[in-house]
């Protein structure tokens, strides 16, 4: 009995995709804290926004909490890659918790910029998404009121500031490049004296992944983005695909979320992954497709990434604390 002929499907892989240097570093910090101290190691907030990464670290002995008051007094604690308000490490020191900071260095750069502007007496307009951990952490670097959140062009038109001559802006690192450019343009048009960052705040990985998706979007019938629903950079990739001419784009956490009905009539499928999604999830999607289609795989590479970030020294629990 002959097997049924599989319909053809061209799969276009966007590259770069998946893990960035900040995510690699954050995961390494948790694993090294576990190696040095043994489980449990407490992690404040999801280390990165991906359930598979979190579950892998849980299996190794990581315990994820939202606040430090969920940690015992002798805990080893790691702060997530998204950054934390200054009050968090201050509380960890007050309680003499053993702690390591996995904040992405590019997020830390934004923190220092915001501090610099606040010390100079400027109000900072932070472009970002309300409630996102990175935004909460950035706003928590300075006194309340020193930073005003701006999410949209409409917000830029309506935000009230105490002194238009003493203003600066900063941005969340995982935003849509084009949407952010529109908000920045609106702020500059309204506040000509506003100061900007010394370098681009949106991180290289976010920009590269968006440009790669923008490149493939016009040539495919659908784009699948592997990533978590609470991952800002992953959601932006879906928006970029739609904005750049792809009629259908969806965010999926894993291959099991693909609805075969969505693939009916699709001749070319684009595939990418957010900066916190491991590559094995992309391979699982390809395997899912190959089981149903005669897949022709093609990769479109827009940039080669060689960025790495050194992990900080990981503290070890003292014998006294462990006893």
Notes on the protein architecture:
Helices cover 37% and strands 19% of the residues. It starts with 7 loop residues before the first strand and ends with a helix. Strand 6, helix 5 and strand 7 form a beta-alpha-beta unit. Helix 4 (105-119) runs parallel beside helix 5. The chain has helices at residues 21-37, 51-60, 87-94, 105-119, 133-139, 153-158, 177-190, 204-216, 232-243, 279-290, 319-322; strands at residues 8-15, 41-44, 62-65, 76-79, 98-101, 123-127, 147-150, 167-171, 222-226, 248-252, 268-273, 294-301. By secondary structure, the protein is of the alpha/beta class. The chain has three domains: 8-19 and 204-301, 4-hydroxy-3-methylbut-2-enyl diphosphate reductase, catalytic domain (Cobalt-precorrin-4 Transmethylase, domain 1, 3-Layer(aba) Sandwich); 21-104 and 308-322, Rossmann fold, CATH 3.40.50.11270; 106-190, 4-hydroxy-3-methylbut-2-enyl diphosphate reductase, catalytic domain (Cobalt-precorrin-4 Transmethylase, domain 1, 3-Layer(aba) Sandwich). The chain is built from eleven helices and twelve strands.
């Amino acid at each position: 009995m002959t097997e049924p002929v599989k319909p053809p499907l061209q799969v276009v892989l966007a590259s770069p995709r998946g893990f960035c240097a900040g995510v690699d570093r954050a995961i390494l910090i948790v694993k090294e804290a576990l190696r040095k101290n043994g489980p449990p190691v407490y992690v404040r907030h999801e280390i990165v926004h991906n359930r598979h990464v979190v579950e892998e670290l849980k299996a190794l002995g990581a315990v994820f909490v939202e606040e430090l008051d969920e940690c015992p007094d002798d805990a080893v604690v790691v702060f997530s890659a998204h950054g934390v308000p200054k009050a968090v490490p201050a509380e960890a020191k007050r309680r003499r918790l053993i702690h390591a900071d996995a904040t992405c260095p590019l997020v830390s750069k934004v923190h220092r910029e915001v501090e610099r502007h606040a010390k100079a007496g400027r109000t900072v307009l932070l472009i970002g998404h309300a409630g996102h951990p990175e935004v909460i952490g950035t706003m928590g670097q300075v006194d309340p009121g020193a930073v005003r959140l701006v999410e949209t062009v409409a917000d830029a038109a309506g935000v009230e500031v105490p002194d238009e001559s003493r203003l600066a802006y900063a941005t969340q690192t995982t935003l849509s490049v084009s949407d952010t450019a529109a908000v920045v343009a609106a702020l500059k048009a309204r506040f000509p004296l506003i100061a900007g960052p010394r370098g681009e705040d949106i991180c290289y990985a976010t920009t590269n992944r968006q440009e790669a998706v923008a490149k493939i979007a016009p040539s495919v019938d659908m784009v699948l983005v592997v990533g978590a629903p609470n991952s800002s950079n992953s959601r932006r990739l879906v928006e970029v695909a739609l904005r750049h001419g792809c009629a259908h784009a969806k965010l999926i956490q894993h291959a099991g979320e693909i609805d075969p009905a969505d693939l009916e009539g699709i001749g070319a499928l684009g595939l990418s992954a957010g900066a916190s999604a491991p590559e094995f999830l992309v391979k699982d999607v390809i395997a899912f497709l190959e089981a149903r289609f005669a897949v022709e795989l093609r990769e479109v590479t827009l940039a080669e990434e060689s960025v790495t970030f050194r992990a900080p020294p990981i503290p070890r629990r003292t014998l006294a604390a462990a006893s």
